[in-house]
Specification:
This protein has a single domain, classed as Leucine-rich repeat, LRR (right-handed beta-alpha superhelix) (Alpha-Beta Horseshoe), CATH 3.80.10. The strands form three sheets. Strands 1-2-3-4-5-6-8-10-12-13-14 form an eleven-stranded parallel β-sheet. It is α/β, with parallel strands linked by helices. Helix 11 crosses helix 12. Helix 2 links the parallel strand 1 and strand 2. InterPro entries: LRR_dom_sf.
Length: 380
Amino acid sequence: MTKTVPPADYQQMLVRLQESAPLLSHLHLNADVPPYDPTIISAMSNAICTFKHLVSVRTGPLPITEQAFRYLAELPHLEVINVRLPDTITEASFRRAPFDEIFPSLRELRLAHLFNLNLISLIVQHTRSPRLEIISAESVDEDRPVPLEDVMSFFSAILSRNNAEHIKELTIEALPIEWTPQNTFTNQHLEPLFALKSLTTLKLHLRCTFDLDDVILERTARAWPNIRTLDLGPGSTGVRVPSLAALIPFAQHCPELQVLGFTLDADLCRVPPDIRDSARDYAQRELRVLKVGCAEVADPRCVAAFLADLFPHLRDIECGSIDANGMEIGAAAEWDWEEVCEEHLPAAARERGIVFEPTLDEIDARVMKAWYIGRRTSEQ
């Protein structure tokens, strides 16, 4: 949908949808055109309240009304919800009209709010479904920070659930943390999440200082052997910065890991020679993306060789972070990591007899690049 469509047309479309599909079970509406017209919000929310057989609802960044959210919460067969809560709903209003049973069949809960993470924690706490496996929280207002204590309360709400050990995915998106010297994400904040034994995805996109070490990351790898995506950041670094050796436990204990991200120290001098030499013994062949935060690299060629030994099929290295003030950091290292990724890593792979077949995305990118170059040439 585009912003040029009059709100009345959205309203008419939704009325026709109600008339033509009264048994609708899956609703996916993408109207990413802020600021959102009240007519669109009202029309969509009213339409939602007429569908009794919904199994999944995805309205993305478009807010729904409190009435529509409460209606969805009581549907007996709803399994997936991905909505933005209304800015007007508060913890107090939620408690004033409590539910006897909320989301009895839910598997996937993805909620966004302007800034109130505690409200989302409260909803997680009251969700009754024993099948809940995926939880995601997003802060829409990236300029309004929240205390780190609110993040820990969110974790506690999840960990207190009877089915906590069956949670597979946990995501916190675009959350700026209120800056104080105490608001640093440390080993003690990460450790309680080890109780989520079935995790396959953990994304903590917190804009704050991270202060993790090699020891806690080794414990992380052991705690989640089935992890596929682990993204701790982006964020600036504290006093302690994990070394390249912190990657080895993930190669040893996480055979399905495909995406790994945390800021590290890419100085190979911190890695004992015997560990560097044994990296190939732990080769893990599933990792495709490594996010290194604001790490600087001293010796691109040697770092690439180490990574090629450890993760032979590594294809992409992402550099750069967002600090607690929302500013980009690590840009100075981007050229070095680009050299590692595009020059030295493919060369190291070829030396080891590894040939990369291009992905569909890479083929598309090459086609678009060739088309663009051809167009520029013809215009000249």
